[in-house]
Amino acid sequence: MYKTIIRPVLFLFDPEKVHYFTFSLIRNLSKIPGVKRLFKSLYQIENPILERELFGLKFKNPVGLAAGFDKDAKLFNELSNFGFGFIEIGTLTPRPQPGNPKKRLFRLRSDSAIINRMGFNNGGVEEAVTRLKKNKGVLIGGNIGKNKITPNENAIKDYEICFEALFNYVDYFVVNVSSPNTPNLRALQDKEPLTNLLKALQVLNFGKAESKPILLKIAPDLTDEQLMDIIDIVKTTKIDGVIATNTTISRKGLTSANKSETGGLSGKPLTKRSTEVIRFLAEKSNKSFPIIGVGGIHSANDALDKLDAGADLVQLYTGFVYEGPKLIKNINKAIIKKAQ
């Protein structure tokens, strides 16, 4: 029904407007008695085979929603009814910011992809915290970044502000230095500034009564040498894992008319490369840290490929948009079938 009726209608309209319309629709539908139960019956699967325990957290299944979909933590309770095992909110910044000028979100339908240059548009971390206080048991990741106007030499302070504000309200943190849509942000992926940033966050983390997992989200465009640096940085800073990968700046093999739009590309064109990065990190590190695999998951087989490559969990974004919520159930069913 989603791919034959709902998606064709939604895809007639501007992607960003449709995103907010869909949010409102899901929120309002979820207020109707019995609808939450209906969503759960249609999409949720509970099975001990699906449960995962990583960095001290218990995930009811390994399929999560990637950051960027619920940037401001407005819909995580409702979205959890579609069967996600965890939901990552953000990217959040210390101060509210509008992001880049519109139009900034583009569908590449013939490529089953999306290009976005949103630019960390969000209402600021404190606004998100007010909503996170209403969490009804959803396992939440907090994806944090820096404000556009903050120069890189002051970036650590922005990440520290977000870390402190979110600490009591998220289950794990994700340090985003890999978005291509904030000027100079990716320079923070270089070994020295990234090591300094993660060490600063770990100082705060280890100063708490009980620390929380910190993960690093990396770009798919890193070279093998840079990926080896990432492995070394994880070991040096003792962070808990890596999310591979963010969107790409590559446009290789695209056929859509709007393929030249600037921004980060997600969806099917990223499937192979993100899996390659996962496999490289897992093999070269001797699987010494957990990996969350994201990028181009449009089918159960795509998810299984990432898990086979070394991912411990997977996340959806563009695949969720193109394939609908049934994709979550299909992945979980395939994991159960493979394990039996």
Automatic annotation (TrEMBL):
Query: Which sites are catalytic?
Result: 179 (nucleophile)
Q: Which reaction does it catalyse?
A: (S)-dihydroorotate + a quinone = orotate + a quinol
What function is annotated for this protein?
A: Catalyzes the conversion of dihydroorotate to orotate with quinone as electron acceptor.
Fetch the HAMAP family from UniProt. Answer: DHO_dh_type2 (MF_00225)
Similarity field: Belongs to the dihydroorotate dehydrogenase family. Type 2 subfamily.
Assembly notes: Monomer.
Record-given protein name: Dihydroorotate dehydrogenase (quinone)
Native organism: Winogradskyella vincentii
